[in-house]
Amino acid sequence: MDKGLKILLGVTGGIAAYKAAELARLLQRNNVEVRVAMTDAGTKFVTPATFQALTGKPVITDLWDSSFDNSMAHIELSRGVDAIVIAPATADFMAKLAHGICDDLLSTVAVARNCPLLVAPAMNREMWDNPATQRNVATLRNDGIAVLGPAAGDQACGEVGMGRMLEPEDLVHDILAFLSPKKLAGRKVLVTAGPTFEAIDTVRGITNLSSGKMGYAVAEAALAQGADVTLVSGPTAIPPPPRAHFVYVTSAAEMFNAVKAHVAGIDIFFSVAAVADYTPVEASNRKLKKSNTPLELHLKPTEDILAYVAALPNAPFCVGFAAESENLADYAQAKRAKKKIPMIVANLVQHAVGREENEVTIYDDAGAHPVARASKGQIAHRILAHALGLFEAKSPRATITPIKQAS
Question: Which of 142, 195, 251, 265 is 20 to 30 A from 76 in CA distance terms?
């Protein structure tokens, strides 16, 4: 970024506090001025002296710090900064934020802020999955607080699962992307996500293993860039982004109809959904009973949603997605040519299905552009950056320049 940003980094009491030291260092490498405030519990994991040495600024821990005018540290600390970032954010601290509890310096600063707030959760997997934590996270998101992560992986307690704080490099990318100029302000983006479910009878159907995480991540990335986003989603377990126009569908036909209903005036279309290629010719209106004789299903092809959108007069800039198990380059390029789209994002299913991370290759007229393995959120930002560059070059209406990647 050209203009230096100012961030207040809040450190709470979790073992991931050691990562906050590296985060402070990396932010400063990216021309970000960092000041640190800590909870008392945070100081038990990393000393304030560490952060003072890294930032060159005194670390604030006391609500009654007399070095501030009128002893109002909780007001002064959030003024003049571009954002407050809480990393790590414990389950306890997020509960405070969700309910407006101000019982120490950092929680009071967060409630008294007049700037964006970003939190990076870090906790045991059971704490993350606890219904109370999930309710609090949903409240934070609905209140406009950006929740960065968490990721899945090994935890300090010896368990494995969701709740691990994002790595400092990933957090830097997310923070800079969040604070970057809103390149898509005034633009409309349509995203499809998730699987479809093609009914065989009243209880059975044809579907696939898509979680929808990649499509939702693309929608979140576009929202972070200021776009007006419509997300058309098949069945998933993911809560919809609160700022997106959300359309829930079940079948491929429903998804096709929803896209047709919302595609007018769209600038960029991301066709991320894993739409079923075939659907039963006729679904039974009752549950089929098991017997000893073979069951024959008659299937017909579903509508090609991406090809339909790409062939529209004044079609939006179309980005396709291809999930393959082999011959990635050949199949992806063939799909791009058949659908006559400028860009396709391809990955091997064995690298992505059921995982929090992905690695993809972007194909366009210039060839192949590999994107190294990273969280799906990170991958989404890189996909969006590439699409913005091509959109500017190909669209006579575009005035957008691609976003810079965080170093």
Answer: 142
**Residue 270 is labelled as binding a ligand:** no
Q: For residue 365, which phi and psi values (nearest 5 degrees)? A: -65, -25
Catalytic residue among 102, 115, 157, 318: 157
150 cis-preceded (ω within 30 degrees of 0)? yes
Does the annotation list 394 as a binding residue? Answer: no
372 CB contacts (<8 Å, ≥6 apart)?
Answer: 359
365 is in an annotated binding site: no
339-390 per-position pLDDT tens digit: 999 999 999 988 767 677 889 999 999 999 999 888 787 788 899 999 999 9
This prediction has a pTM of: 0.67
Domain edges within the chain:
5-179, 188-394
Q: Running DSSP on this structure, what letter comes out for residue 267?
A: S
Residue 248, beta-bridge partner list: 233
Q: Rounded to whole angstroms, how far apart are CA atoms 35 and 54? A: 10
Tell the residue number behind the tokens 């799906």, with chain if given: 376
Give residues with Cβ within 8 angstroms of 80, minimum separation 6.
6
Q: Is 277 annotated as a binding residue?
A: yes
Going from the C-alpha of 266 to that of each of 132, 205, 238, 303, the distances in angstroms are: 38, 32, 24, 20
Is 115 noted as a catalytic residue in this protein?
no
Residue 321 counted as an annotated binding residue? yes
CATH of region 5-179: 3.40.50.1950
Q: What is the CATH topology of the domain spanning 188-394?
A: Rossmann fold (3.40.50)
